[in-house]
Amino acid sequence: MYILQANDIHKSFHRLHVLKGVSLQVKTGEVIAIIGPSGSGKSTFLRCFNRLETIDSGLIEIQGELMVENGPDGKAKYKAEADIRRLRRKMGMVFQNFNLFPHKNVMQNVMLAPMLVEDNGVKEAEEKARVLLDKVGLADKRENFPFELSGGQQQRVAIARALAMDPDIMCFDEPTSALDPELTGEVLRVIKDLAIERRTMIVVTHEIGFAREVADRVLFMDEGLIVEEGKAEEVLINPRHERTEAFLSTVLMAR
Amino acid sequence: MEYVLILMPSMLKGTSVTLQLFFLTLIITLPLGVILALARLTKFKPLNLFMQLYVWVFRGTPLLLQLFFVYFGLGILGLKIDRFSAAVLAFVLNYAAYYAEIFRAGIQSIDRGQYEAADVLGLTRVQTMTKIVLPQVFRRVLPPVSNEVINLIKDTALVYAIGMSELLRVAKTAAVRDFSFIPFLVAAVFYLAMTGVVQQFFKWLEAKTNFYR
After folding, report:
1. A-chain residues near B114 (CB < 8 A)
2. Which residues, other chains included, contact A231 with Cβ-Cβ below 8 Å and sequence gap of 6+?
3. Mind listing the pLDDT tens digit for each residue in A136-183?
4. Which residues of B touch A97 (CB under 8 A)?
């Protein structure tokens, strides 16, 4: 059984066909990197898994439980709101722009969802937050507010906040794209640690070196389709498709 | 000076009417403004359109006219209500329209990412609103809200038009009776005192909520 299954996903924004039938099966413990030029639909694809984007047609299953499938008319039909909220909790999400809650300090950011959604008591939530903040190397920033932190620190808080819900899958949407180059390392290191723990992860990224290092599988997307998919070293070192090769050379040239 | 002391009892009585109207309106309008703003932002079309109409009507006509409508209009319809209730009703209807617009703008100014973050963490819509969005909105709307609160103090003077003895009417009566300008000066000092307190209160509130950026 797959931990996540997405079949033939289609999605349009108005008349722009962003996803033209993409599929992905993820096994427990797998780390998947999705790469591709901007506008290729990779972030949109990721955002479909937790319904930040509503798909037009296709099927999404999380741990064998259906979230959406096509109705008789061939259009996507979602499960009830409460079911979706429950399924969403199985997936942690880390955004490009962190999206921390600015009016809450670091501890409160991490404790909020466990207390509100999981009905954790303060003690329990606090304990969990402490452990997670230690893990992402921010034990000394617990009482700070997001605006007092660097981008890299904010992103690590965001990772801790997502982990606090004990997700089965962690999704990262270009987690280092909004960061100054010297701050990407600290965030990638945290993600790498999660990979070592064999956490199931899907990472949309421009960091080719990072993808090669941590990903079991790499998807290359372009113009709403998966052009190439395979083991990291295959796709990234010996790509079979011209488009993949062209993309990789532009990205690597820019380094 | 002696004359000022003689004026005091009636002036204070007038001020008490003013303050009653002010506080009652404020206590009802602020929460109502939030609710109306949410109604204005709903995807449910009829409610949304109704709110637009509401705001148009009550922001688009003079408060004085609304006061007349409520007090005399309801009277004509056989719904006799006392002056004070009529005044509160008119003020609430009018100010709620303004607050609804202020809160709507505040809610819309919150970044989409905040909703998305709350969404993926599994928060319900109500939790997202009460724990994430509205606390940030309240801080953002403090300056425009304080403007309207100060306006409200001054607008209470309008109720003299339906014969209520609030501060300005008391002052005018005394001024005409005693052929003196002093009652107006005293009234001005009273208004400045009230708006001054409000201004300081909001200054304090802004400082107190200024712990994040």
Report:
1. 99, 101
2. A216, A217, A218
3. 999 999 999 999 999 999 999 999 999 999 999 999 999 999 999 889
4. 113
* Count of CB atoms situated within 10 Å of the CB of A20: 15
Locate B63 and state its tokens: 């408060």
Across A77-86, average pLDDT = 90
Rounded to the nearest 5 percent, the helix, strand and coil shares of chain B are 85, 0, 15
Considering only CB atoms, A99 lies closest to which of B116, B122, B124, namely B116
Asked if residue A133 lies in contact with residue A139, where contact means CB atoms within 8 angstroms, the answer is yes
**Strand ranges of the sheet holding A225-231, from the earlier edge strand across to the other edge:** A91-94, A169-173, A200-204, A31-35, A217-222, A225-231
A161: Cβ contacts below 8 Å, ≥ 6 apart: A100, A109, A110, A112, A113, B121
Q: CB B120 to CB A102 under 8 A?
A: no
A20, β-bridge pairs: A10
| Residue B116 to residue A101, Cβ atoms within 8 A | no
State the CB neighbour count (10 A cutoff) for residue B118.
Answer: 24
Give the residue carrying structure tokens 């901007």: A38
CA distance A210 to A1: 28
Distances (CA, A) of B29 to A141, B95, B102: 40, 7, 12
CA distances from A52 to A49, B1, B113, B115 (A): 8, 70, 10, 10
Contacting residues of B for A147, CB less than 8 Å apart: 212-213
| C-alpha to C-alpha distance for B25 and B5, rounded to whole angstroms | 30
Distance CA A52, CA B120 (A): 8
Burial state string for B5-17 with b = 16 or more CB within 10 A and e = fewer than 16? eebeebbeebbeb
Residue B213 has pLDDT above 80, yes or no: no
How far is the alpha carbon of B112 from chain A, nearest alpha carbon, in Å?
9
Task: Quick: pLDDT tens for B148-190.
Answer: 999 999 999 998 888 888 888 888 888 889 898 988 998 999 9
- Predicted confidence (pLDDT) at residue B79 exceeds the cutoff of 90: no
Tokens of B29: 């309008």
